[in-house]
Design brief:
Blueprint lengths: L1 H12 L3 H15 L5 H19 L8 H9 L1
């Protein structure tokens, strides 16, 4: 099976960029599970809440480079 996957990958990498992108998108879409509507609603509410906090000045933003450095510590 592994040899077959390797052969498929080699063939796919020979495709033009647009075809590789379409193939990659199709493969990723095939992994998607049905949406959890409750989770989607909860994320939407969380995002709205965070944006509101930013707009009201309750939180301060930092550049990504600084956040990444903090995470690495």
């Amino acid at each position: 099976m592994k040899e077959n996957i390797t052969d498929i990958l080699k063939q796919a990498l020979k495709l033009p960029p647009e075809a590789r992108a379409a193939l990659a998108g199709s493969l990723l879409a095939s992994l998607d599970e049905p949406l959890d509507r409750d989770a989607e609603s909860a994320w939407e509410a969380e995002i709205t809440s965070r944006v509101r906090e930013i707009d009201k000045g309750k939180v301060s933003l930092i550049p990504w480079a600084e956040a990444r450095a903090r995470i690495a510590e």
